[in-house]
Structures are given as C-alpha cells and as structure tokens.
Amino acid sequence: MSRKISPAELSQHNSPSSLWLAINGLVYDLTAFAPSHPGGLQILLQHAGQDASVPYNKVHSPSLIRTSLPPTAQIRSSDSIQTPVPQIFSSVPTKPPLSTLISPHDFPLAAIPSLTPKATAFISSAATDCLTHRTNSSLYSHLTLRPRILINVSTPTTPLVTTILNCPVSSPIFISPTSLGKIIHPSGEKAIALACSNLDMAQTISTSASFTLSEILSGQNTSHPAFLQLYVDKNRVNSERVIEEAVRNGVRAVMVTVDAPVPGKREADERIPTAAGGETLAPMAGTATAVGDGKGAALGRVMGGYIDDSFSWEDLGWVKGLLPEGVKLVLKGVQTAADAVRAMETGLVDGIVISNHGGRSLDTATGTILVLLELQRCCPGVFDRMEVLIDGGVRRGTDVFKALCLGARGVMKEMGARGVGVGRGVLWALGGYGREGVERYLEILNDELVTTMKMCGVTSLEELHPGLVNTRAVDHLVPERVGEEHPYAKWRKSKL
After folding, report:
1. Per the database record, which ranges form the FMN hydroxy acid dehydrogenase domain (predicted)?
2. 433 catalytic per annotation
3. Which residues, in sequence order, are CB contacts of 217 under 8 Å at separation 6+?
4. What is the pLDDT of residue 273?
5. Amino acid 261: pLDDT
6. For range 375-389, the mean pLDDT
7. Is 233 a catalytic residue?
8. What pTM was estimated for this model as a whole?
9. CA distances (Å), 483 to each of 105, 286, 298, 313, 409, in order?
10. Active-site position among 106, 233, 259, 363
C-alpha cells in the first residue's frame, strides 16, 4: 500500500513551482496544469499545500479532477487534512523582471501578482467544461515536424515578412481581438496597439474594447495594419456608426464574428463578481460592466445583450455595402468546410478566420487546426479564392509553423494561409508588463518561429508546405467531404 502524504509534507508544496492539493482523499500535483486552470492560478494558490475538498466540491463534480487530469498528476492518498483557507493571497512571488521571461508559458505566472481575481478569471475562462479550450492547444502536440537537413539556412535576415489581408507586416502572427483590455492594464488596447506598431505586426480590435478606435490608433504608425472585429448590434445603426469610425481611422478589414450569436457560458468568470469601483466601459459597443445578475457575473454575457442573434448570410450584403474599396470583409469563426465554401460562394467575403472564440463560445466544438485540415481535404479551392487565417490554442512558435504549413497547399500562393492569431497570451503579457510585455511576448513567438523554420530547412514563408508536418495522428478525426451528414439527419430527411 502506498505511503500517505502527511499534512506537513503537503504544506511544503504551496507555490507555482510545486503546487499540490488534497481533494477527496487523494493528493494531486497540479504544477503543470495550474497555468491553464480555467478559473485562474490564483484560486489554486489560495488552497495550495492544503486539503481543498470543501471548496472543490462546492463547484465541481467529484469525478472531474480524476477524469480531466493525466494519471501522473495523482500522487497518492492523503491523511485527513482540514486547514483554514487563507484570507490573503500570499503565495505568489514578486513579479520577476521582464528580461527573465524566456518562454510564452512564463507570462501567466508572472502576471498573476498584477491582476485582480476578476481579470484573471476573464483571461483564463472558457465555455463550460473548457474541453475545446484545451483541445485547441493539445491538438498541436499531436502534429509532428519532419525537418529537412543539410540546407543553407543562413539567409535571409527577415524571413517572416509577409502580407495579411493585403497589408505588409513583419510577421504572419497577428493579434486576435480581445475585449475590455482596461480591466487587465490601465492602457488596455492602446498598449497592445503601440506594441504592434513598434513591431509592425497586425492587430484586431474588438467592438468591446475599452477605448474608441481613434484613442487606440492615435499613437500608431499609419502604415501599421489594424482590423476591426465586429459584433453586429441589434440596432444596426450602432454597427454602421462603428464601421464608419473604423473606416475613418484607417482600419483595413472588418472581421464579423459569426461563432457567437449569443455569449458562451464561462463559469470561471461567472463565479467572480465585478468589484465595486472596478467597472469599465466598452464605448464602441455602448455598454459597461455590471455587477451581475442571478446567473452570475461573466463580463461577456452581462455586457453582450446588444449582439444581434438574427444576423445571417442574407445580411452580409449590408455589411459589404458599408465598406469602401480596399477594406476587406472577413468572417471570423468559420468551423466547417461547408461554411467556408458558402462564404466563398457568396462572392462578398475576402477572407475567413478559422476560430471557435478560443473555446469561449461552444464547448466541444472542433479544435481549429482540425478545421484547417478539413478545408485542405474537402475544399482546397477556398485557399485560391479567399484568404484563410486561423487562431485558437497557439502557444508556441512551432504551433504557428504547423498552422502555416497546413494552410499553404504546397506553396503559399497569393491567396493562402497568411496569418495565425494569438489572444490569451497577449493578455497575460499585457497584464503583467503592459506594452513592454506584449512586445517581448511577440518577439519570443517570432524568434521561436524563425528557429523552427531553420531547423526544418526553410528560410522564407513561401517555402512552407504540408510535407513538413505529419498529421497521421489526427487524420482520422477529419471529415471526408463537405457537408458530411450525420446518419440521423439522412434518416430524418428520408421520412419527410
């Protein structure tokens, strides 16, 4: 019989570098899992080194931790331990100097001391059981690289220069839209914009940003590309006003969000109320944070009542008609080959973003890299007619490399997979270090991408192709044809 963990031994593991919890008679090592915990690292650290059975059972089913974590996370059984929950958060170390952060994974841990519990939950939360959130990222680990050797990779010096939506940029990595940046850092989206301007990288600005477009873009180089993410308002006049402001401020594309007709259920965010005095505005959307209601206090849900859930394919012509020549129309949130084909066939859409809202809308939706593989298998022609971008689960330069290779269809054509979006990582960097943190985070990703390219024997994005990635581990998960129907749907049609 395995040795039991004593309360004294358990109490020694109470920091981000070694984080153990006793839950329902078993001890778990959550050190590796903690940075991606949907409720944030802070709540785990509040109970680290203790028996957390009581607070855990209040909000989770007993089986969740056993089924969600790998067996290696379960250490052994524990003695009966009941320690008081600390009233202050004293386990987090002092924020380390920015220069010491060398991995994208360093930023969440480093940001925690600077963030409120609400901000931490807002960044980390995802829909219901967070399965899609985790799958988005974990799928990349099942794709393996196939490096080529003995190739001169000493040149060129700027291998990442490309275009996204016909805009020259220094990197194929772009900033996905994120809301309410001011709850994370006082400068919010303005700090992100300055970082992107300094690095000549593209930023997508949310309708639910904490500042107006003119405030966000006033400090930028005019050649720096910015895109607007649009939630269509139930009052269409409000959306027309937002688009007009975007065009006036030089926005190069409007990305209409199509994967969230209603807000998703983000339980970690629902559980933590907005503190008094912590309210923030979303001036473009015309909303403000609220304390919450009887269902909880998730910012996206409480503030998202203006979103038009009647918006449909027939309304794309209205949006397109508001855009002057040169401003692209993009659908953000395409999750099937069938919808990619339909977007192409409208003749109105210039590009699509394969996205599931970072797993924040519909849980158990398909991981985005699988959707990209579905497009390659079922409708490769869309890459010749529209620009295809992707986000969701991208945490490393190797992830960016794999997405670009699998969107390239042999070689990167004039219309191909041009950009890979990152969101949560940028918010962690913003929360901990402001503009400087965002710049360092993006620089790390760019450096990792260049290293991966050279290790695989390529020196420019045009050389990327699917043959550099082995997808056999996930190929069986990809549909065989566009619009593949479930047998029940076929049966129901036969009965009508």
Report:
1. 96-474
2. no
3. 193, 205, 226, 249, 250
4. 75
5. 86
6. 93
7. no
8. 0.77
9. 37, 38, 34, 17, 21
10. 259
